[in-house]
Amino acid sequence: MTGNPTADANTDSKTGSKLGTGLVVGAVVILVLAFGYLEKVPTALLWPMRLLVVLSIGYLVFALAQKVRATKFEGKKVIFSLILLLMLYGTFYVICLVFVKLMSKKDEAITTVDVTELTKQARGGIQAMLDGESPVQYDREVGWVHRPGYAWDGHSISEQGLRGTRLYPVQARDPEKRILCIGDSFTFGYEVGDTESFPYHGEQLVPGSEWINLGICGSGLTQSYEQYLKNGRKWGGKYVVIAFMTNNVKRTVNSFRALVEPKGAMTPLTKPFAKIVDGQFSVEPNPFQEQARYEKLLANPEEELAYLYDLDYYTWSNQERVTNPVLRTLGYVWERRNGDHNLDLLLGRAKDGFGPFRPGGDPYGSALWHPKSPGFQANVKVFDRYYADVIADGREPLIVILPSGADVEKRAKGDPPKHRALLDHFDEKGYRYFDFLDVLEREYGDKLDPKDLYVKTHFNGKSNQLIAEEIVKMLSLK
Asked: Does 224 score more than 80 pLDDT?
């Protein structure tokens, strides 16, 4: 009995088609695993994984070429295919748009910035500042400082504008025991009580010492520098702690807080910022040189926001801000899945290698930490000037690097810190500093977990005590 050749051919064709589809799916899965999870692959399996990636890419190119060769291009089919592709892209576009909208409420790294209007939260924060009902008040040089005598949610500000209720003589009784602490909300001690900030813990560790808490919520490195120049120097003392939280790398080069955190209600204000163009570094003054300018901002936001945007890192960095939700989603996922790190592993590059500088996408994204980024270089210049001025004043600076929860998670996984180029610069310059990540790893070991360290987004009392203990050790305080 003779079989049906046509039926056999059809069966072989279907089998081959299923096999081809399976291989395509398998190749795609391998690529997703490689670029999203290669860091989790045991070292012994890296080379087999690299081989699989090469084979997968090769097969996908081969399958695409075969598909193109077998396709008969007819007008109607081409039009239908294009329409289908547009519909698929449209669906994906909507999905990504929803993703960006939802995630922007949780993560400012993907927040959409409207340069024509203020958010409800920003408007409320500005109005509260103007009405004297905000924890901060306008300051021409610094941008904003804490309102003397104000208290809210367990946070007290003394009549001297410092965190807590203790009052200090302007002239130090013993300069050897007076430490100026300057930074942002992590220095101020946001989300914890007056007796849980690291400057307060420092005073308990060293009896008779005076830790002047000059921390300002929502501020950045440029403001920290201006705070030292205007309000720090008068307090005297021998030591200056320059506390820098890693997320603040963008605040250094940002002219208006609401451009990077549109829904931040406490400090949607303008401030001095660092700038470096064609190798020329400068610290630009606060764009609003009088408080009345905020009235104009509220009345005519489009014009004022355009002015502030033109001054901001968004503009002077010469990096295109991507607004397409598909590209923003893909870039966000790539960054969150450590795509660059996985690519380094795939190509066998050094784990600490930075790779090429790829501007674009989001100027305030991960590219900001690249050594060749103008934003990173501006941060370095501020540190250099700040450190030199403290020494010129006859004081001893200590830089304290404070990590975010995401930094802690990366350290727990064994990833290099995003700020490693900054630490390399400190080492090269011989600056005295410590990275609190190292302290936390020493304290918690393989049990390092952000849940044990933070209240919400700021350090809890125990973490602040560890910071104080390390400062005491580094400065040899007695």
From this structure: yes
